[in-house]
From TrEMBL:
<dbReference type="GO" id="GO:0051539">
    <property type="term" value="F:4 iron, 4 sulfur cluster binding"/>
</dbReference>
<keyword id="KW-0472">Membrane</keyword>
<dbReference type="Pfam" id="PF07730">
    <property type="entry name" value="HisKA_3"/>
</dbReference>
<dbReference type="InterPro" id="IPR011712">
    <property type="entry name" value="Sig_transdc_His_kin_sub3_dim/P"/>
</dbReference>
<keyword id="KW-0812">Transmembrane</keyword>
<keyword id="KW-0411">Iron-sulfur</keyword>
<dbReference type="GO" id="GO:0046983">
    <property type="term" value="F:protein dimerization activity"/>
</dbReference>
<dbReference type="InterPro" id="IPR050482">
    <property type="entry name" value="Sensor_HK_TwoCompSys"/>
</dbReference>
<dbReference type="GO" id="GO:0000155">
    <property type="term" value="F:phosphorelay sensor kinase activity"/>
</dbReference>
<keyword id="KW-0004">4Fe-4S</keyword>
<keyword id="KW-0408">Iron</keyword>
<keyword id="KW-0902">Two-component regulatory system</keyword>
<dbReference type="InterPro" id="IPR036890">
    <property type="entry name" value="HATPase_C_sf"/>
</dbReference>
<dbReference type="GO" id="GO:0005524">
    <property type="term" value="F:ATP binding"/>
</dbReference>
<dbReference type="GO" id="GO:0005886">
    <property type="term" value="C:plasma membrane"/>
</dbReference>
<dbReference type="InterPro" id="IPR004358">
    <property type="entry name" value="Sig_transdc_His_kin-like_C"/>
</dbReference>
<keyword id="KW-0067">ATP-binding</keyword>
Amino acid sequence: MERVKTGMAIQSESGLEPYVLFEERTRIAEELHDRICPHLFGIACAVHSVEQEWGSLSEEQKLEQLREIQAAASTASREMRATIYDLSSAEEEGASWLDGIRSLLHSLGKLNGVRIGFCAPDSVCRLSVHQRKALYRIISEAAGNAIRHGECSEVNVKLSMLRSSVTLRVSDNGRGFDACARLAKEKEYGFGLRNMRQQATSLGGSMQICSQPGSGARIVVRLPI
């Protein structure tokens, strides 16, 4: 298409297009990080676990673990394709976002032998792109922490929406921790917690942590709509 050489066109050619390209590259990088990396991390953890337990596993158990890893790799591939061929409609994007969360939690649960429940409203079209990204990252981090550090057997993720806010609750039945002590030494122990809190506060929201040793943990995030 031939450009008209007006002042606006010159600005678009020299300034706007590089900026738009930069924004698009950033968006693609974030999408890949959010939707692909958690699956790859789960696969890496599962491979490490199988390697450690290989000698004590039966042939049937080995085959089952390899099938789970293969299924997780297929899921990561599907997420990659979904990211590349992003849907345009806001409602479709909301459905795709929820499907992405379900896929992530299903993969984490299968690879680590943990039951993970997910409850969400039928439509999340009122959530902005930034809110969806933040909530996805918080869910991924919270569920991963519950599995890696909490040594839990069950995680429940619930997303609920009111007219002016959205609330995310992630709870587990793991070993728990002293929330007050952990937050007091957040710089030393809580990089994951800091990251989740920053995701929430950057959008004007808040995060609460309820946990005690031996009683599991619950993280509650609220964002304004």
